[in-house]
């Protein structure tokens, strides 16, 4: 948010998760899209992290090698600011079409030499682009779709008869969230929560045949690679667990997640009472959810983020200002809580460069 006042006034709504006992799909049954703004103000990119850029490069290289993705037309649904699509086009000499309401023209000007077209809008308004797709990619998007079956049905209908594009979806795996009681990964923007079981079921239901199903990025992300189903292929995968197990896991999450919240709340309160300075590293949705769950009894002294487009803005709900990591050299925090453990080593190295000696813990 541009001001603290705007951030504090941002509307807040309840989340109630419900699980389908037939397929294991989990959703926020109170989700109302009118409360969720998704425009070019939405700042989702993680591309300012060297660790994340390395991950993207490795992922792109693996996909290119495994599927021989050279000189193909790639359509990415929910392309964000275009980093992934640009890499795939550069490293595979591919043509790219990206669709995203949050796309900001000019953010990837250094890739102006590539055959790239970006559409600032929603996929449902531009399904015609699928007709030319040889590869369809959708990363970190399906979890934002209130009616994912309708979304997938529109995608399947948009694929011309006889066409066989490679389809790759990449999204958070809710299994880890349930097992780790990761309450910080439950937030309003995510209205749809998938496990390998429910994701594979959705693809099969909509006439798409998963070819492989695997986890990446510290076991946090779930990737499915599929083709249009022409044979009635019902291949299953080891990651798929019985729905009854997922229902039990969901019940256990509901019964014990408050203990996890209380544990973190007490940790921060002890630091506050000891006069220690507490910092959150990362200002995205995890941080918003973490702060909201802890409540007003916990004081956070600073929130930092390496994304320069976030710095100087304010976090929705709490109104905390987002600062650059360099500010920690003066603050000298006693406790830094990392919002995503995959970045802990990178953050530790940056803190060392800044001359900050602190306790570093990750969610």
Q: How does this model look, in words?
A:
- The structure is a single chain.
- The chain is α/β, with parallel strands linked by helices and 363 residues long.
- It has 2 domains: 4-244, Rossmann fold, CATH 3.40.50.150; 264-362, NAD(P)-binding Rossmann-like Domain (Rossmann fold, 3-Layer(aba) Sandwich), CATH 3.40.50.
- Helices cover 32% and strands 19% of the residues.
- The protein contains 10 helices and 15 strands.
- The chain has helices at residues 4-8, 50-67, 83-92, 148-158, 174-180, 196-205, 243-273, 285-294, 328-331, 344-354, and strands at 17-19, 26-28, 73-77, 95-99, 116-119, 135-139, 166-172, 192-193, 208-216, 221-228, 278-281, 302-304, 322-323, 335-338, 359-362.
- The strands form 3 sheets. It has a 7-stranded mixed β-sheet with strand order 5-4-3-6-7-10-9, sandwiched between helices. Strands 13-12-11-14-15 form a 5-stranded parallel β-sheet. A 3-stranded antiparallel β-sheet has the order 1-2-8, with no helix packed on it.
- The radius of gyration is 21 Å and the shape is globular.
- The two termini are 24 Å apart.
- The mean pLDDT is 94.
């Amino acid at each position: 948010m541009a001001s603290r006042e705007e951030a504090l006034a941002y509307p807040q709504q309840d989340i109630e998760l419900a699980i389908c006992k037939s397929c294991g799909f989990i959703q926020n049954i109170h989700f109302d899209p009118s409360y969720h703004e998704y425009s070019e103000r939405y700042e989702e990119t993680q591309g300012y992290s060297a660790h994340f850029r390395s991950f993207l490069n490795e992922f792109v290289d693996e996909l290119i090698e495994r599927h021989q993705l050279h000189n193909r037309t790639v359509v990415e649904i929910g392309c964000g600011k275009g980093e992934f699509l640009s890499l795939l086009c550069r490293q595979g000499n591919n043509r790219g079409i990206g669709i995203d309401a949050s796309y900001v023209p000019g953010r990837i000007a250094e890739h102006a030499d590539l055959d790239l077209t970006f559409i600032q809008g929603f996929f449902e308004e531009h399904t015609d682009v699928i007709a030319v797709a040889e590869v369809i990619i959708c990363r970190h998007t399906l979890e934002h779709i209130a009616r994912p079956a309708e979304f997938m049905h529109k995608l399947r209908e948009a694929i011309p008869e006889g066409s066989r594009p490679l389809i790759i979806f990449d999204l958070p795996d809710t299994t880890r969230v349930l097992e780790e009681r990761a309450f910080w990964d439950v937030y309003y923007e995510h209205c749809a929560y998938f496990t390998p079981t429910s994701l594979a079921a959705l693809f099969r239901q909509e006439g798409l045949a998963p070819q492989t199903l695997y986890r990446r990025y510290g076991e946090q992300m779930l990737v499915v690679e599929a083709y249009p189903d022409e044979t009635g292929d019902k291949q299953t995968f080891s990651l798929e667990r019985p729905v009854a197990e997922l229902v039990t896991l969901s019940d256990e999450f509901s019964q014990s997640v408050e203990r996890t919240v209380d544990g973190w709340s007490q940790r921060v309160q002890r630091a506050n009472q000891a006069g220690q300075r507490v910092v959150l590293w990362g200002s995205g949705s995890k941080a918003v959810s973490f702060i909201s769950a802890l409540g007003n009894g916990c004081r956070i002294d600073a929130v930092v983020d390496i994304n320069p487009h976030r710095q100087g803005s304010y976090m929705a709900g709490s109104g905390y200002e987002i600062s650059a990591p360099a500010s920690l050299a003066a603050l000298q925090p006693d406790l830094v809580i990392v919002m995503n453990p995959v970045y802990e080593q990178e953050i530790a190295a940056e803190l060392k460069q800044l001359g900050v000696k602190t306790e570093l813990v990750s969610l």
